[in-house]
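Issue 218. Parser rejects a valid record. Input:
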Amino acid sequence: MATTTTTITQTHPSITAQNVLTLFPDVDTSLASTHRPSTTSQHDDALSGYDEEQIRLMDEVCIVLDENDNPIGSASKKTCHLMENVNAGLLHRAFSVFLFSPRQSHRLLLQQRASEKITFPDLWTNTCCSHPLGIPGETGADLPASIAGVKRAAQRKLNHELGIKPEQVPLEDFHFLTRIHYKAASDGKWGEHEIDYILFIEADVDLSVSSNEVRDTKYVDAEELRAMIHEDEKTSKNGGGKSFFTPWFRLICETMLFKWWEKLSDKENGGIKQIQSEEQIHRML
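Output the parser choked on:
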């Protein structure tokens, strides 16, 4: 059986990052450029000596904001967390998930961050804290779209860090409460400056923890968490002020968590539905 080979003669130039806008002016190169593998992870002294997987994650693209939570650009996770940029005012979007187990009388799932983490290693915190990325589906310009984006990001990161399957934490079960704007140093090199979306969810889940992300987990009731905070206060007072909680979690505990938790557990009066979503941003600087 005879075969025929067709030769196609290329009459147009090859498309490259350098000429794509000349050839196709309507192409938006910003998303590609922010996702192009960087060389900084391999050659930057700022990341020297850290865990390779955590270095790789520093190339993820965060959403850069103005102080009213309006997206104004994007930058790598590394850029957003360098303390020199934090001190200069660079601000990005984040989320904090608080997962409560109905089967365990609404005990809260905490995690201890892995030793490999570049920022705030080994500290105890809420169930999951991370960033929506500058990608379709997670970036939002107005508040409803931003809430939808952080819910998608939360579902993604719960799976990545704790192995929680998306079907156990459906998007519609996340309850947005409010936003906090805070700034905190991890050490002299790294820190946080975030507008943090607070999400509650009630779910009984199966865990398959990534040891590169999470060192330990535990469920606590409100009194057990208060006892942990009290012990942390004593320890930090005697140990030069160093806490074993992340700063954002400590701020939320000190201001809002316990009153929300009480309403969540009050099923006779509506449970989580009693907690109204807020449009205002709480400044905790």
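Fixed in the parser; the record now loads. Residues 39 and 133 are 20 Å apart (CA to CA).
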